């Protein structure tokens, strides 16, 4: 029995170490893509690219928080998840405000830049999502990380479709529609993470954690 417990503990430690390494890789990829996309978004005047660049930055911060609380108690991790859920909701709201602003201005983004950067961003996010796939069913903290990676990949596909739409119609409507979609997706994910985190903060869970 003792040997089995030791083996289980060693396996858990190994999994935690692997998860930590993957988070560092994901953080580096997201910071790099934030720099690339924010520059491209400003040049292309694309609200969906700017939204995606801010999403990369938010995810990098998300991974940083996850690294900080990794190995701590369930209550601490759940509280960190609530903070991340609030950040995700704020990000989604900000995107919606940007979309409304661009609608009022009537600007038309540069479709080729949107398409090329969208492809690069999609490849980066698919890599991160693939690395973190095995940890998608963990606690609220791990789930928030996975949802961010999944949302990013979906957002990149949407940006590429928006680029085709802008190219075909000559208007900024497709860009605005995608930005709105990304904002709603971020708010939806925030609600999911917050619900799970609140469940983990129930008195029974807090007692079992101590």
TrEMBL record:
Residue stretches making up the Cation efflux protein transmembrane domain: 23-70, 80-201
Membrane disposition: Multi-pass membrane protein
Keyword field: Ion transport, Membrane, Transmembrane, Transmembrane helix, Transport, Zinc, Zinc transport
GO molecular function: zinc ion transmembrane transporter activity
Principal location class: membrane
Pfam families for this protein: Cation_efflux
Name of the protein described by the UniProt record: Cation transporter
Organism: Stutzerimonas nosocomialis
